[in-house]
Design a protein that fits this description.
This protein is mainly α and 104 residues long. It has one domain. Helices cover 83% and strands 0% of the residues. It has 5 helices and no strands. It is elongated. 23% of the residues are buried. The mean pLDDT is 88.
Length: 104
């Protein structure tokens, strides 16, 4: 379980961490790690999709709010990975799991 937690934690470290966790999970084939890889991938996609929209506003207050939102979701994902639970992140987690579980 310790290697699963560390792999799940690594998945939240950007795209390189996501790639490392994915390649490591090929050997592990863990449902716990797959859950957190999907969460992390969904958060990365959410970051880029919402970031594109936020960038069009050209307002530092909207940008700072966006960064705090994304940072809080990542911290929540990291803490659930460390605690060993499979709780989806608020607001987008259930949607992310529903979409990417069909793909994998």
């Amino acid at each position: 379980m310790k290697s699963e937690k560390s792999t799940a934690l690594i998945s939240y470290l950007g795209f390189i961490g996501l790639l490392i966790a994915y390649l490591n999970n090929i050997k592990l084939e863990s449902d716990f790690v797959s859950f957190h890889i999907r969460q992390s991938f969904g958060l990365c996609l959410t970051f880029f999709m919402l970031g594109y929209l936020v960038g069009s506003f050209d307002s530092w207050m909207i940008t700072i709010t966006f960064w705090i939102f994304i940072f809080a979701l990542n911290i929540y994902g990291i803490t659930t990975a460390i605690s060993g639970s499979k709780k989806p992140v608020p607001l987008v987690g259930v949607f992310i799991q529903r979409i990417f579980k069909k793909i994998s």
